[in-house]
Amino acid sequence: MQEAIKQVLETINSYGYKAYVVGGYVRDYLLKIESNDIDICTNATPKKLQEIFKELDLSSQDYGSVTLMHNNIRFEITTFRKEIGYVDHRRPLEVEYIDDLYEDLQRRDFTINTICMNSNFEVIDLLNGQEDLEKRLIKAIGNAEKKFEEDSLRILRAIRFATSLGFALSEDISAAIIKKKHLLRDLSYHRKKEELDKIFSSSKVKEGIDLLLQFHLEEDLQLPKLKEVKNTDSLISVWAVLDAVDIYPFNNSEKQLIDEIHIVLEKDNLDPKVLYDYGLYPNSVAGSIKGIDKKKITEAYNSLIIHSKKELQITSEEIMDILHKKPGKYLKDIYNDIEQKVLYGKLDNNYDMIRSYILQKY
Ligand code: ATP
Ligand code: MG
Hints:
The chain has 362 residues and is an alpha+beta fold. It has 19 helices and ten strands. It has helices spanning 2-14, 24-30, 46-52, 101-106, 129-135, 144-150, 153-165, 171-180, 189-200, 205-214, 217-220, 235-242, 252-265, 272-278, 280-290, 294-302, 316-323, 330-343, 351-361, and strands at 19-22, 38-42, 65-70, 73-79, 81-87, 91-97, 116-117, 123-124, 137-138, 168-169. It starts with a helix and ends with a helix.
């Protein structure tokens, strides 16, 4: 990783441009936390970068930031910039490329995210980010209220960093969150969810939820059930309790899973038929929400006599043969009946027993 970073920085340098690692990677490197996401800042424009790295695809360019894959490592390279005139408290009206690192750092969010490293891994710390890193403090660059007015996502980023790093929020950030939290209402649910996902999947998720509640963000985030989240074993269990699929973006399989969790929350998750019908995963998530030991549910699932129709010792053809009937809706009813009996141990799962049961009952 470090060798690849050195190569990328030195390559840009060799064309006469400045280039530094900045942001999360440096922050985490100094905290001895592993990080795979590498942000680089440079005074080379995206066009120049393409001349330097021929393989660069500028169509992937997003607000002047380009993605370079080198040795299978992803580098997000961003040209020094000044952001002018924020619209809707979320994006700059205009971006102007500049030559100066100090000025580029000014537009960023928190001091701990402004520490840079050059190709020799020497730290360049123009805004005293290291001091706040040592104090374990999230501090805004300049005026916190103004930072949140420019981009209200920074409110959630502050809480995310406080959560995942276990850092404190500076007093002015806390005050500014209270003053500006209403701006979160206008932020896209997509961007909000990205940060919330990071908070909810952090190992310190409980502290994160406490912070969100402490600032009463449940209203502005439209998460009225935030207080009800007690179990935080998995991201999906948190979202299932939050019950927010109508406003936050989820893909179809996530929606389906959350629906199933909601259904089985109302049921007995150790019941063989419930385990059989909905499967292990929704039941163990629902179980964890209700405080049932996951091991208990797994054991109950593993000891089911059958886990799917395929395991029943009879086929549709055989049922039709036994009854001398053509296919029809009746088959489903018979299947349901047999499944139920077998699952509850009232009928042995073997062909002869099932056959005589069918002959006797149908
Ligand atoms: P991580 O990658 O660990 O989530 P990060 O700090 O690297 O954290 P990124 O989203 O990768 O976060 O952004 C890289 C850098 O860009 C940040 O460190 C920060 O300096 C700046 N940045 C990102 N988002 C914002 C924002 N909304 N407002 C201001 N600066 C930002
Ligand atoms: Mg990053």
